[in-house]
Design a protein that fits this description.
Helix content is 16%, strand content 24%. It is α+β, with helices and mostly antiparallel strands. Bound molecules: fe (ii) ion (2 copies). The site of one fe (ii) ion has 6 residues, from loops. Keywords: Signal.
Length: 580
């Protein structure tokens, strides 16, 4: 009996010891208790194809223990992912995510959100046929989750006919999901996506990329997993976006919405977004240390994507060959500020009255983020690129950036030039007013960049920013396409409604038309009628969404429109032009 009790006591002691060790191990190993099955935060998507490889990327909300891509016949080959954590993604009082349906319900200020990014390079590809792939993430508790199976390919060889989607300015706008759904229904599988900037509204707000409650976040729309409802005459229609970037690599340029301002200084992420501060002023006020945090950054954008790089500009400007195309991507975007001239406006043309004595609070007008004027690092790089054999020998030469060089839209005014600051002081040297001017003759795109592109025989310049569809043709035959009436519009100013511009200096601030002197081209197939019934050369609509497809086999760029207020209506091809 005694021996029996002793044995029971020993067993009990051992049991308690095992429990204690488990608890201690659990605490020190950082293992969390997970209440639900693991999920991927996005489907996988493709980036940076080369002649024999492509990158597969995806995101989770757990660090996990193993992440890999299974690919090839019967998915028997494996590529192991490299995992990193996004450093600046946060949610705040204006996020619409999880239980926060209204401002401030959950978050009272910006709060870090833990998101891990997984990237694997799939190698040994020949390009003869597309290869199946699937990603799997294993959580710390050993439970795993796999994506559906998609297909990947290396970069296409010259001569391969390609369909390339031209898009921009998604920003969770109301028509995005419908637009991308119609792309897939109309064009089918595209071979690449070119996005001319403005992916989301506020780059550091995680939910805008992944899971905004409105159902129109960036990745869900481009992956066919959106759920954006439109209420038309009391009838609800759901648009899902398109399953696009799981199969097609995406190349992007930086728009103003990829740039975040001074870090941690505002009360909300919106305040931070609006608080881009010129680097030379930041140097003076704060010194070189933490210059990025005291000015502006594109960290989240650069952490999310893996793009081609240039030695001079990294991912911010680059060139890439893709099939028959040489695509040159520039960093041409500036801080957007209000045209409002009120005392309260920290705007394009003035500082607000209450800030006048405090330059730390000034907005400094429409700050250009990366120099592009003649002689700048970016300009010199562009000049070199346009003289490279890769560029010269390409059948198609296309340049993509965010800011419009020709447009009927709002954002083309004022000129793309550094704001000229004019400070007026009273007798006591106190600041009375701070104003900004933008001389049109100093527009860096028109004065410096476009002549370079014309001389290099670029066939098409593709851009966004004004949320409008319109196109132009220069005398030398270079095409200009702005296909950014994707999710909504900011209006067209050809006749009637005028841009909000300063009353003087008419020569610098055009209220109507293309300030840079080209006539818009009337769509060749089915232009929309204006109020007077006559055809108009643009689409600026919150019902009508537009997209364009560059078909390299046919040498055409075709544009399509879809009326989201008539969910059962057909997509209409309304314009097509040929690249010489
Ligand atoms: Fe935009
Ligand atoms: Fe923009």
């Amino acid at each position: 009996m005694l021996r029996y009790l002793t044995k029971r006591k020993i067993l009990a002691a051992l049991f308690i010891l095992v429990i204690c060790l488990s608890v201690v191990y659990g605490c020190f190993s950082g293992q969390k208790a997970f209440s639900s099955a693991p999920q991927l935060l996005t489907d996988p998507f493709l980036q940076l194809p080369t002649q024999s490889s492509v990158r597969v990327l995806w995101f989770t909300e757990f660090a996990g223990s193993k992440h890999n891509v299974a690919y090839g016949d019967n998915l028997q080959q494996t590529a192991v992912a490299n995992t990193t954590k996004l450093s600046r993604t946060r949610e705040d009082q204006e996020s619409k995510v999880g239980n926060q349906k209204e401002n401030g319900q959950v978050y009272k200020q910006p709060v870090s959100r833990d998101i891990w990014r997984h990237e694997a390079q799939v190698v040994g590809l020949t390009g003869l046929k597309r290869v199946s792939y699937r990603v799997t993430s294993v959580r710390e508790d050993g439970k795993s989750i796999s994506s559906n199976t998609f297909t990947l390919a290396p970069t296409p060889t010259p001569g391969t006919p390609l369909k390339i989607l031209l898009t921009s300015d998604h920003q969770l706008k109301p028509m995005i999901a419908a637009n991308l759904q119609k792309v897939v229904e109309t064009v089918g599988k595209v071979d690449a996506v070119w996005l001319a900037g403005d992916t989301v509204n506020i780059a550091d707000r995680a939910s805008e990329w992944f899971d905004d409650n409105g159902g129109g976040a960036f990745f869900p729309c481009l992956q066919g997993r959106a759920k954006f409802e439109r209420d038309v005459n009391g009838k609800k229609t759901s648009f899902l976006g398109g399953e696009i970037i799981q199969h097609a690599p995406m190349f992007t340029s930086i728009g103003n919405h990829e740039v975040m301002g001074r870090f941690g200084k505002g009360g909300s992420l919106g305040d931070e977004f609006n608080d881009a501060f010129p680097r030379p002023v930041a140097m003076k006020l704060y010194g070189e240390k933490s210059l990025k945090d005291n000015s502006y950054n594109t960290d989240t954008y650069e952490e999310i994507f893996t793009l081609p790089e240039s030695k001079e500009g990294g991912e911010s400007y680059y060139a890439v060959s893709f099939g028959d195309v040489r695509l040159v991507v520039l960093y041409a975007t500036n801080m957007w500020r209000t045209p409002n001239m009120d005392a309260e406006a920290r705007g394009k043309y003035r500082e607000r009255d209450k800030d006048l004595q405090n330059p730390e609070n000034w907005g400094y007008g429409q700050v250009i983020f990366e120099p592009i004027a003649k002689g700048s690092k970016q300009y010199n790089w562009l000049e070199k690129e346009l003289n490279s054999p890769e560029f010269k020998q390409a059948k198609y030469k296309v340049v993509m950036f965010h800011h419009p060089p020709h447009s009927l839209g709002d954002n083309i005014v004022p000129a793309y030039t550094n704001p000229v600051q004019i400070i007026e002081r009273d007798a006591n040297r106190n600041v009375k007013t701070v104003r900004y001017k933008y001389p049109k003759k100093s527009d860096y795109l028109i004065r410096d960049v476009i002549p370079l592109l014309e001389a290099a025989k670029v066939q098409m310049v593709f851009y966004g920013h004004s949320h409008i569809w319109n196109r132009f043709l220069s005398q030398s035959g270079m095409h200009f396409l702005e296909t950014s009436n994707v999710g909504n519009t900011y209006g067209a100013f050809l006749s009637g409604d005028k841009r909000s511009v300063p009353s003087g200096d008419k020569k610098d601030y055009a209220a109507l038309g293309d300030p840079n002197g080209l006539e818009p081209v009337l769509p060749t197939i089915a232009p929309l009628p204006g109020k007077d019934g006559k055809p108009i050369p643009y689409i600026a609509s919150n019902d009508m969404t537009a997209f364009s497809n560059f078909d390299t086999g046919m040498a055409t760029v075709s544009s399509y429109r879809f009326d989201t207020s008539q969910p059962d209506s057909k997509v209409v091809k309304f314009d097509e032009f040929q690249l010489r």
